[in-house]
Task: inverse folding
């Protein structure tokens, strides 16, 4: 009898799950994740980019369109949870591989916003999939308030690309970070367009911010402050390992292929990118921090 009851209960449970699962998947589009009340991420793990959106009673705020294909999926994700108008599309920074697809949201009536450094670069370096933002902002901080939801835009100075913006939802204690933190993965290939010294400083600035959840544009979408610290420590550990080889008298150009950091061997792309990462840090130590731009460079008009 008790055996039958247990069997019946199992059958019931399976039936319930079967009934519920189509409802769950029908209510939220593929690759969409609810992070907090009214806050969602969207990202196709195969394509490797994650965006974030916030739904309010006065419309939707979208962060990071990536490209038209991604933006269309992102719009579908938004429409699977809200019919509110898209009010703002916000860019994290200038690079083509993040800043495409804006037209998808412009067509929905969104105002596209980027930091002035990113805006000016986009103006000077057009791309067929990149819409020039409608507005730019300057300084270190901008706050957008929509139906009582506060979103802070933080510009932390030079680190990667131009106009890099870290987004923070103070009430939800959540941040969105593009490119400058990728959890448990090595630095991106040859570490392009990163000023290592200012990057480390920026990561410390982020670590000092008040938040508990971090959303990342690449890799595992959701993490915490631990991931920011681990990324910073990886850069510092790799630099220290290079210095150790220098002190041993290892020929400098042999160091990138010799250096090993077993502590991080479980991280993604460890075998593939470690020597490329080491080359970049070695050259940075040899030549001094780069890239760097004097303040007046931003005032040059062509
Ligand atoms: Zn970038």
Result:
């Amino acid at each position: 009898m008790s055996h039958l009851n247990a069997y019946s209960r199992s059958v019931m449970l399976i039936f319930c799950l079967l009934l519920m699962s189509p409802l769950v998947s029908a209510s939220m589009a593929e690759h969409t994740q609810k992070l907090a009340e009214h806050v969602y991420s969207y990202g196709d793990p195969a394509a490797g980019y994650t965006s974030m959106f916030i739904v309010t009673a006065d419309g939707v705020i979208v962060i990071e369109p990536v490209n038209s294909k991604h933006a269309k999926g992102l719009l579908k994700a938004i429409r699977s949870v809200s019919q509110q108008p898209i009010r703002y599309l916000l860019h994290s920074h200038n690079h083509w591989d993040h800043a495409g697809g804006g037209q998808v949201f412009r067509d929905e009536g969104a105002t596209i916003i980027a930091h002035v450094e990113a805006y000016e670069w986009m103006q000077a370096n057009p791309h067929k999939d990149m819409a020039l933002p409608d507005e730019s902002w300057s300084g270190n901080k901008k706050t957008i308030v929509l139906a009582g939801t506060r979103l802070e835009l933080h510009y932390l100075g030079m680190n990667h690309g131009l106009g890099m913006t870290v987004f923070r939802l103070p009430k939800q204690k959540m941040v969105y970070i593009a490119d400058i933190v990728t959890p448990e993965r090595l630095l991106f290939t040859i570490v392009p367009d990163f000023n290592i010294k200012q990057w480390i400083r920026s990561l410390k600035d982020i670590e000092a911010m008040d938040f508990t959840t971090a959303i990342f544009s690449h890799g595992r979408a959701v993490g915490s402050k631990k991931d920011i610290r681990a990324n910073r420590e990886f850069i510092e550990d790799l630099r220290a390992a290079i210095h150790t080889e220098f002190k041993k008298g290892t020929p400098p150009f042999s160091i990138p292929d010799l250096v090993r950091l077993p502590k991080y061997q479980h991280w993604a792309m460890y075998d593939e990118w470690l020597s490329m990462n080491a080359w970049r840090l070695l050259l940075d130590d040899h030549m001094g921090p780069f890239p760097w731009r004097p303040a007046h460079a931003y005032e040059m008009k062509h």
